[in-house]
Amino acid sequence: MKNRLKSLLIRSLTATLGNFLVFIQPKKARELAKNRITLVHKNKKHMSIAERLMRAALVRKLEKIDDYNTIAESNRDFWINNATELFEETEDGFETNFLPKSTFIFDLLKNEIADQTESFDTLVEIGTGNGNTLNYLSSAFPALKRLIGIDLSPDQIEINKRKFKGNNRLEFVAEDAMEWVKEHGHGNTIFFSNESLEYFLETQLQGFLNEVNQLGKIIFITIEPNGHYHDLSTTPHSQLYGNEPSFSHNYPLLFKNAGFKLWHFSQKPWIGGFDMQTFVGAKNF
C-alpha cells in the first residue's frame, strides 16, 4: 500500500509539473506535439527532463479517435511523409529491444526451414523502416538469395539504399505491400513483419493475408503489439491500441482464416508490462 501511494504521488507530481511546463512554454509544446505518432514514440534518451515531463503531459491530452478509417488514413499518411524522423529517433531500439527480446523466433524459423524439402530463397519484410532488421537477417540466414524490404516512405527507402549499398543481397522498395505482393510476390518466400501490421485495418490485413496465401508455399513471421486487455481467445475482432492509435489484431485467427497453420504462437509483456508483444509463426502447407 505504501509503495502504491508513493507511485500515485509521483504520478500526480509529474503530471502537475508537465502541465505547468506546457502552459509556460507553449512554443516548445507545439514543437513536441507537431505530430501525434512522433509524440507517442519520441525517444526519451535524447530529451531533457523538462521535455520528458511535457511529452508525458501532452500524450495524456491526446484526443480519443474512434473512427477506424480516419485512424488508418492518418497513420498511412504519416508513414509515407513523416516517418524518417521517427526511424532516426528510435534506431537504438534495434539493439536494446529487438535483438535481446525478439530474435528467438528466428532460431525457431531455422528449425522450421531445416524440416522442409524445398528451399526458401527469398525473404520479404513488410514495413522495413530503417532496414537494420533486414540487414541482420541477411547475416542470420546466409542461404537467402534475396531480402526485400518494403516500406511506404520513399525518403526512408532512399536512405536505406545508401546505408546498405555494400550488401548486394538487400533490396529496398517504396511501395504499398498489397500492390507489391500482387505484382511481384511468389511462392517459397518467407514474409516478416515487425510492428507494421498493426497499422492495417482488420479487413485490409485479412485481405493481405488471403493474397499472400495464394502465392504458393509461404512461411510468415510476425511480431506485433496487442493491448493487455485484448483476450485473443474470446475477442475475434480488432480493437484500438495505444495513443497513436493503431490496431490490436487477433493475429492467430486472421492467419487461420487466410488458410495458414500456426507453427508458433507466444506473447510477452511489453512496454513496462502494460501491453503484450505477440509472436506468430505461420505457414500454408
UniProtKB/TrEMBL annotation:
What's a BP term from Gene Ontology annotated to this protein? methylation
Which Gene3D superfamilies does the entry mention? Vaccinia Virus protein VP39
Supply the InterPro entries for this chain.
Methyltransf_25, SAM-dependent_MTases_sf
CDD domains assigned: AdoMet_MTases (cd02440)
E.C. designation(s): 2.1.1.-
Keywords recorded for this protein, A-Z:
Methyltransferase, Transferase
Decide whether keyword Transferase is in the record: yes
Using the record's annotation, list all stretches that form the Methyltransferase domain.
Answer: 124-214
Name of the protein in question: Class I SAM-dependent methyltransferase
Domain of life where this protein originates: Bacteria
Q: Which GO terms describe its molecular function?
A: methyltransferase activity
Question: Sorted alphabetically, which SUPFAM superfamilies does this protein's record hold?
Answer: S-adenosyl-L-methionine-dependent methyltransferases
Show the taxonomic lineage.
Bacteria, Pseudomonadati, Bacteroidota, Flavobacteriia, Flavobacteriales
